[in-house]
Amino acid sequence: MTEIIEPECEIELAEFVRGAVASKSKLRIVGGGSKQALGNSVTGKHVSTSKLHGIVLYEPASLTIVADAGTPLEELEDELSGNGQHLPFEPSDYRNLLGSSGEPTIGAVVACGISGPRRIQTGSCRDSLIGVRFINGDGDVIKSGGRVMKNVTGYDLVKLLAGSYGTLGIITQVSFKLLPAPEKTATVILYDMDDNQAVGAMSKALGSPFDLSGAAHMPKGKNQSMTLIRLEGFEKSVDYRAQKLAESLSHFGEVEIESDSEIAKKRWKQINNIEAFANRPGAVWRLSLKPGDSPGVINAISQSREIEVLYDWGGGLVWLLTPIIDNCGEKIIRNCVNQVGGHSTLIRAPKENFTGNAFHPQSDIVEKISTNLRLQFDPHSILNSGKMSAI
Amino acid sequence: MSQIKMPLPDSSILDRREYLTAGLTVAAGSGNVITDPIETIAYECDALVAYRCPPLAVVLPRSTEEIAAILKFCHLNNLPVVPRGAGTSLAGGALPTADSVVIGVSRLNNTLEIDLPNRFIRVQSGMTNLSVSGAVSSDNFFYAPDPSSQLACAIAGNIAMNSGGAHCLKYGVTTNNLMGVRMVTMKGDIVDIGGPHLDPAGYDLLGIICGSEGQFGIVTEATLRILGKPEGARPILMGFNSNEVAGACVADIIKAGLLPVALEFMDKPAVIACENFAKAGYPTDVEALLIVEVEGSESEIDDQLKKIKRIALHHNPQVLRESDSALQSDLIWKGRKAAFGAMGQIADYMCMDGTIPTSQLPNVLGQMQEMAKGYGLRVANVFHAGDGNLHPLILFDANKPGDQEKCENFGNDILKLCVEVGGCLTGEHGVGIEKRELMNIQFNDQDLEMQMRVKDVFDPKWLLNATKVFPIGSSSSRRNKNSQKAA
Lengths: 391, 487
Ligand SMILES: Cc1cc2nc3c(=O)[nH]c(=O)nc-3n(C[C@H](O)[C@H](O)[C@H](O)COP(=O)(O)OP(=O)(O)OC[C@H]3O[C@@H](n4cnc5c(N)ncnc54)[C@H](O)[C@@H]3O)c2cc1C
Description:
CATH class of the largest domain in chain B: Alpha Beta
CATH architecture of the largest domain in chain B: 2-Layer Sandwich
Structural class of chain B: alpha+beta
Radius of gyration of chain A: 21 Å
Shape of chain A: globular
Shape of chain B: globular
Bound molecules: flavin-adenine dinucleotide
Number of strands of chain A: 18
Oligomer: heterodimer
Number of helices of chain A: 13
């Protein structure tokens, strides 16, 4: 077992980072350890945020919560649901997908920028995040944003920290704006559509006035294909919108309304957590594309590789399961994505079967800006060095 | 005399004026450069009109490539640049310095691509906010962020300031609706960030560019998320006999799980001024007025308003008036939208923009009126109550010696109070020059240093709008590094 350092508070953590600078040691940052597999592998002293624990402030009437980074996601979500509220971006739980254990922490959710199906309606993790505190690679404690919903004071470092995988700073505290949790959830289901039709139907629904909170498609496999549209809100409103949508989509084929909230919630949890690819051999990729481009890209990849896919975000997000041969298909997948624009991230693969960058290489100038940013936040390259790029 | 100090212009640039303007003309094309002092008057200030300064020159390019050529020239010659959209900034964000070139994007005003199935529009950044919605309106789509200045302000300025609007409680502000930009860096490199896909490949550069107040590059194109229009919308007007009660009503609406698209608050001075000006039929005997708007189909609207009315009735409203026609809805909004004009009729005014936790509303409004007494000035409040973004309008007389200083001091005190109670200096207007010297109240030196290091990445020479955002003392070593005046 490698030793894990678990500072008790932000000040202690900052001191520890300054010590690491002095001794030129690299650090590997861990929350609960459930998402270590994401990104490129990192070596260094393990430092954990798990003892930075607790909800610092929660004002339901202000729709805001502030929590220390090591607070378990579940604890936070329980507190919110007790007050009829939730995190709008619906963070996924990848433990089954990644075959990992550990307790997902809210800080790591932010560091990895994890957002679920509701992304298409209320935005992603960075859109709900209104404040962060973090420790940069010099060991300085930095704050950006705060605890109010509207704030343009100074640069929005908050956005930059979300999804930076610990390479710009060790996040110690996060604040979110919240939303009321829906009274009712329903799913409008369409069957037997191919990928093109499905994305077409989802686009039509997403352009309607009916305020979707999810649009996913599971292509035909052992079962017939299913295209799923989620509606959330007050009961009467959900019923009304589901009916209207079903009518407007009827020319795409058979439409069913699943109006039991519990069943619908379970269904969307499975989609959110990519349960379909859990406990299955192979590599998992995540593709971010213009929705209309997705079926073409998938078709092109499938010409030369065995793949299984799941569409979320109305087609804007594609999860792909593929055998590990040929560096997990890196070349063909990235080539196909590059044809249209967008990006691909390797989410899961046995270490020995993938060499290269889990993140999609970007234009030279964007890579250069990114490297320079990293060096401003972490001049000694000690924070999760190598996680997102060579340094 | 106004109080916000600008650094002395770089004399080595003023001395080279002729050489530099000639060079600009070559780089930009002669039809695109304005140097005539009469013609540059229009660019001497933005909507913070108390501060003015003629720039060295104004350039109005017609393409991204022209901007790249101009910036290359400026970079080579250490010539400061002030990007400009429509000049409606209330924070002095677009205020020139005497040694700077204003680069305006007003001629970049075309729609480049409308993609309804993928729900985005790509535009040149000089397009006005309203014309973006206009471009997709007949297809029943809209662009959500709706600053009150939307008829005039440009997408470029919206991106630079991360502007909000009355409907951002539900739809978010600019950063939540921006998908991509094309930007020219100070060195003259053209960079594309983001696009019609939904998340970044690596660091969220788009997130940091939005709200960077024109200090990272000149944005020439933007990809914006568009949404399907709701079936309908209807406002309800509610009057209460104290700010506290109105504030409590707002809190109860939110706690009940309702999410109106707009939740606007006006205090008594604002109600009276707006009513006198716009004749919107507002009750002038109430202490606080709320406008709550909900969206959806007729039946959804009925259902939500029923819930909202039930909550309001617990707070003994003096007035509860639901719109029953499009005409009435327009009237209800007319008063609110006329707020700035109404104030302008009464006196000169400054519009502040702090945000507070909504739980602090009654406390802050109360303290503000106390402070107003102390200063002998009047203050009226119209603001977005759902998100705590205050807009205190402080009335003063620009012709009365000392009144503007008093007004600025009062404004600063209000913003300090906002920070004290857990809020921030600016919710949507930006820092510009106006709140630059107050940044130390919200941030410590390390926080500011971290932010300035981000600017170092995008603009190592500190030539782009460099006298804004940071306290002038904090940024001086960086700004002076490259200018020859230090020598
Ligand atoms: C009556 C009135 C009502 C208002 N209401 C609101 C409101 O409801 N909500 C709100 O948020 N704001 C509001 N504002 C403030 C203002 O309209 C916004 O800040 C707006 O976004 C500014 O846009 P602009 O095009 O006028 O920008 P400008 O004033 O020209 O510039 C603003 C900033 O953007 C930078 N900039 C301009 N163009 C570029 C570019 N191409 N690339 C990089 N940087 C650039 C400038 O350097 C400057 O720092 C209001 C202003 C007025 C006068």
